[in-house]
C-alpha cells in the first residue's frame, strides 16, 4: 500500500512532506503554511516538527492560505490516510506510564479530559496526546498509541481551581496552551509505546474537598461503540470557514465509513470503557486502578 497522500494549493510555492505517525502527506503549500508550521504542528496528530521539500506528484485538493483552514483540511486528509492502515484519529487525551501502559481519556469539549490528564501527569504519567490520539486497532484485539497532538489546551480558571500548585497566573487569555510546560512534556512526540491498558469517558464534577458525584460505570457495548464513533470522527466533523465549501465529512467515502465502523466495533469489544465522574484527582485514581487490572 502507498504510504503517501497528496494535498495541493492554488497558491503553490513548493511541495512539502508532512509526517504524521510515520506516514506521509504531500502538501503543495504557500509560504504562510511553511513559515507557520511550528504553530500548526502541535495541532496535527503525530506531526513532525518540520516539513521537508519534495518533488510534486499528483493533485487531489486545494489548500487555502489561511492557516486554521489549512490545518483542518490537512487533518481531515490525515484522518482518511490513517484509516487505510486501521488507525483511528480519536478526540481524546492519552498518557503513558511504564509498567501500566497507555490510557485514553475520551469526552466532549469541556468534559475534563485535560484536567484529568493533568492530575495523572502530576502522578508520574507521561503525556502522549493533548487532543487527538492516533490509535492502531489490532484485528486480534486491543489498541496501540501511534502518536497524537502536542497542544494541551485548558481553561485557565479550571487549572487555577483544581491545581493551585501549578501557580498558573490569574491574568491572561481564558484558554491556556500548556505545550512545553515542564509538567506536560512529551505530547505529540512519542513513538509507538505499547498497548492501551484502559479507556474512559470523562466527566469532571464534584467539589474541591469532597467525593461528591464520584462514579465508576462500565458502559454497555452499544454505548461504548457510540462514544468511539463520535470521537473517531472528530477531524472530519470540523466546520469549514469558507462559505459554500464542501464539508470535510465528504472526504470519508463509503469504504472509509465501513472501515471505521469495523475498527470502532473491534476496539469497543476488546477494550472495555468506563464512565468516570468526579474531581480530576479522584478520576485519576480510578484510571490508575483500571490500568492496573490489565
Secondary structure layout plus pairing:
Layout: E1 4-7, E2 14-20, E3 23-29, H1 31-40, E4 52-53, H2 67-83, E5 87-97, E6 101-106, H3 113-121, E7 126-129, E8 132-137, E9 143-148, E10 153-155, H4 156-162, E11 175-177, E12 196-204, E13 215-218, H5 221-232, H6 254-270, E14 273-278, H7 280-292
Helix pairs in contact: 1-2, 3-7, 5-6
Verbal overview:
- This protein has seven helices and 14 strands.
- The chain folds into two domains: 4-83, no CATH class; 87-292, 3-Layer(aba) Sandwich (Rossmann fold).
- The chain is of the alpha+beta class and 294 residues long.
- 47% of the residues are buried.
- 29% of the residues lie in helices and 27% in strands.
- Strands 5, 6, 7, 8, 9, 12, 13 and 14 form an eight-stranded mixed beta sheet that branches. The protein has a four-stranded mixed beta sheet with strand order 1-3-2-4.
- A hairpin with a 3-residue loop joins strand 5 and strand 6 (101-106).
- The protein has helices at 31-40, 67-83, 113-121, 156-162, 221-232, 254-270, 280-292, and strands at 4-7, 14-20, 23-29, 52-53, 87-97, 101-106, 126-129, 132-137, 143-148, 153-155, 175-177, 196-204, 215-218, 273-278.
What fold name stands as the CATH topology of the largest domain? Answer: Rossmann fold
Low-confidence stretches: none
Largest sheet: 8 strands, mixed
- Roughly how much helix do the residues carry, as a percent range? 25-40%
Please state the overall shape, judged from the principal axes of the Cα atoms: globular
The percent range for strand residues is: 25-35%
Count every beta strand, where a strand is a DSSP E run of 2 or more residues: 14
Amino acid at each position: 500500500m502507498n504510504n503517501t497522500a497528496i494535498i495541493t494549493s492554488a497558491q503553490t510555492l513548493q511541495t512539502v512532506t508532512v509526517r504524521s505517525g510515520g506516514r506521509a502527506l504531500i502538501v503543495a503549500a504557500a509560504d504562510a503554511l511553511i513559515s507557520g508550521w511550528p504553530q500548526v504542528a502541535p495541532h496535527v496528530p503525530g506531526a513532525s516538527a518540520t516539513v521537508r521539500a519534495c518533488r510534486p506528484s499528483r493533485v487531489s485538493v486545494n489548500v487555502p492560505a489561511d492557516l486554521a483552514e489549512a490545518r483542518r483540511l490537512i487533518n481531515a486528509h490525515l484522518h482518511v490516510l490513517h484509516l487505510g492502515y486501521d488507525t483511528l484519529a480519536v478526540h481524546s487525551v492519552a498518557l503513558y506510564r511504564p509498567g501500566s501502559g497507555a490510557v485514553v481519556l475520551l469526552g466532549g469539549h469541556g468534559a475534563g479530559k485535560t484536567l484529568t490528564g493533568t492530575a495523572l501527569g502530576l502522578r508520574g504519567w507521561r503525556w502522549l496526546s493533548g487532543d487527538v490520539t492516533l490509535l492502531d486497532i489490532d484485528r486480534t484485539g486491543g489498541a496501540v498509541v501511534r502518536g497524537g497532538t502536542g497542544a494541551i489546551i485548558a481553561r485557565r480558571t479550571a487549572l487555577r481551581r483544581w491545581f493551585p500548585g501549578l501557580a498558573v497566573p490569574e491574568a491572561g487569555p481564558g484558554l491556556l496552551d500548556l505545550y512545553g510546560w515542564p509538567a506536560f512534556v512529551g505530547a505529540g512526540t512519542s513513538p509507538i509505546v505499547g498497548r492501551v491498558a484502559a479507556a474512559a469517558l470523562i466527566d469532571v464534577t464534584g467539589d474541591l474537598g469532597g467525593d461528591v458525584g464520584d462514579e465508576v460505570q462500565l458502559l454497555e457495548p452499544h454505548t461504548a461503540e457510540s462514544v468511539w464513533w463520535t470521537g473517531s470522527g472528530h477531524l472530519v466533523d470540523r466546520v469549514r470557514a469558507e462559505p459554500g465549501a464542501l464539508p470535510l465529512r465528504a472526504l470519508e467515502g463509503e469504504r472509509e465509513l465501513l472501515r471505521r465502523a469495523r475498527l470502532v466495533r473491534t476496539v469497543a469489544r476488546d477494550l472495555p470503557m468506563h464512565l468516570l465522574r468526579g474531581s480530576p484527582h479522584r478520576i485519576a485514581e480510578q484510571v490508575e486502578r483500571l490500568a492496573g487490572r490489565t
